[in-house]
Write a structure and sequence with these properties.
Blueprint: H1 2-30, H2 33-60, H3 63-86, H4 92-118, H5 126-155, H6 157-174, H7 185-188, H8 213-221, H9 224-240, H10 243-252, H11 259-280, H12 288-306, H13 311-338, H14 345-402, H15 411-424
Helix pairs in contact: 1-2, 1-5, 1-6, 2-4, 2-14, 3-4, 3-6, 4-14, 5-6, 5-11, 5-13, 8-14, 9-12, 9-14, 10-11, 10-14, 11-13, 12-13, 12-14
């Protein structure tokens, strides 16, 4: 697990370095901010249609081999881009094609690497492992964004892509040496060296031979916990977590700050995310109710932040807001990756990837419209109230349903039911 976490830190740092440089590269080629947004959408778009297929592939294929191949392919794309930049042959069309290929590979790589990391620990430690993964992700994001400017300044743009390619190859080299823990979902089927394998129960048909996409979709749609989790995460993503947009407008507008002030706010957000991930690593049995409570708390803190009279007050409010929302994200991922049965987790993550792409593509325009209509303060306050009110209404509806009395059959009905049961037996 330590090797896996270190490899993922390097990979995340390389990925965020490439993403940062890619935006600068598009601006350099086209001079258009709209083209920059288009390149990000092209890379995210394959997840909208292909995540469910990628999740099914992860359930069907050997997990370690799948993760190793996908990481190697991502490295090959990064190296190809670096060569094209070095030869001055990269144009906007080539960049869009490479971005689309990266997004397509990521539909398999994302769930494969997430579930492979869970296999390295005992089942009861999976929530903690997910928290460690969130910590590694946030730390890699900070390191990658910082290294991007240094790398481009000293070595050029191609070096950033080459560094990301090397980070993918490092993960590929580490994967063959990972040994899943005995008792983990992936290991329980195969046994471990020196430990007896679990007994094999003869079955009429191998359940893994019919791993259809439809099975994952049906399971997700019929699982109230997952539907509730998707609803909480969706409304929070649209109205509560695009702080790069809302807080930037608030700082540079009503609070009359500059780029330096927004940089300070971004740093506090990143620190809060890391602290939340550290606390999330201590979660043992997160629930959807806990995810909702944390998301609602973060939304109320967002309302207070939107009313901040000064930059100092905003910085004070941003830290707990980021901590609570990072905790909510970590708890939500733990529920998502532990609630489904082991043979369905890849497809459930694939369904989640498609839903999440809808939020990521549709959320910024909706929030941008809200900013236009209500301003920065109004958008933060309105969004926070919408999130907290929606989650509160869901809790009340759930509590009302749980208090409804269960009908008790009359004595005659019970006798008739027993006769029917004995006949069936």
């Amino acid at each position: 697990m330590r090797w896996w976490s270190f490899a993922n830190f390097l990979s995340n740092a390389g990925t965020w370095m490439q993403l940062t440089v890619q935006n600068l590269l598009v601006l350099e080629i086209t001079g258009s901010a709209a083209a920059t947004g288009l390149s990000m959408s092209v890379q995210a778009a394959p997840a909208l249609f292909m995540s469910v297929l990628g999740g099914a592939a992860v359930d069907r294929w050997p997990r370690k081999l799948t993760a190793a191949v996908s990481q190697a392919l991502l490295g090959a794309v990064a190296f190809t881009t670096a060569v094209l930049i070095a030869l001055d042959r990269l144009d906007m069309t080539s960049l869009m094609v490479l971005a689309a290929v990266t997004g397509t590979i990521a539909t398999v790589d994302g769930p494969a690497c997430a579930l492979l990391g869970n296999d390295l620990v005992l089942a009861e430690d999976v929530p903690s492992a997910i928290g460690v993964g969130a910590l590694v992700h946030n730390a890699g994001r900070l390191a990658g964004a910082a290294l991007a400017g240094i790398t481009v300044g000293f070595l050029g743009t191609a070096a950033a892509y080459a560094a990301n390619g090397l980070s993918f190859l490092f993960v590929t080299a580490v994967i063959p040496f990972l040994r899943p823990a005995y008792g983990a979902a992936g290991r329980a089927r195969a046994g471990t060296r020196g430990a007896p394998a679990p007994p094999v129960i003869p079955r009429r048909r191998d359940r893994h031979a019919d791993m259809t996409v439809r099975e994952g979709l049906v399971f997700f749609a019929r699982r109230p916990r997952l539907v509730a989790l998707a609803s909480i995460t969706g409304i929070s993503s649209v109205f509560g977590r695009n702080y790069g947009l809302t807080l930037a407008v608030l700082v540079t507008g009503p609070l009359a700050g500059g780029a330096g002030a927004f940089g300070a706010v971004s740093t506090v957000l990143a620190v809060g995310g890391i602290l939340g991930a550290v606390l999330g690593a201590r979660l043992r049995r997160p629930t959807v109710r806990a995810v909702g409570a944390l998301a609602a708390t973060g939304a109320l803190l967002q309302v207070v932040a939107g009313l901040s009279p000064s930059l100092a007050v905003l910085l004070i409010m941003v830290l707990p807001m980021a901590v609570v929302q990072s905790l909510s994200d970590t708890a939500g991922r733990a529920v998502l990756q532990t609630d489904p049965p082991a043979h369905l987790r890849g497809r459930v993550l694939g369904v989640w990837g498609s839903i999440g792409t809808v939020w990521s593509l549709g959320g910024p325009p909706v929030l941008g419209l809200l900013l236009e209509l209500a301003g920065a303060r109004g958008a933060l306050v309105t969004g926070g109230l919408l999130i907290a009110t929606s989650i509160g209404a869901g809790f009340l509806l759930r509590a009302r349903r749980s208090r409804q009395p269960v009908p008790v059959p009359a004595p005659g009905d019970e006798i008739a039911e027993r006769k029917a049961l004995s006949t069936a037996a």
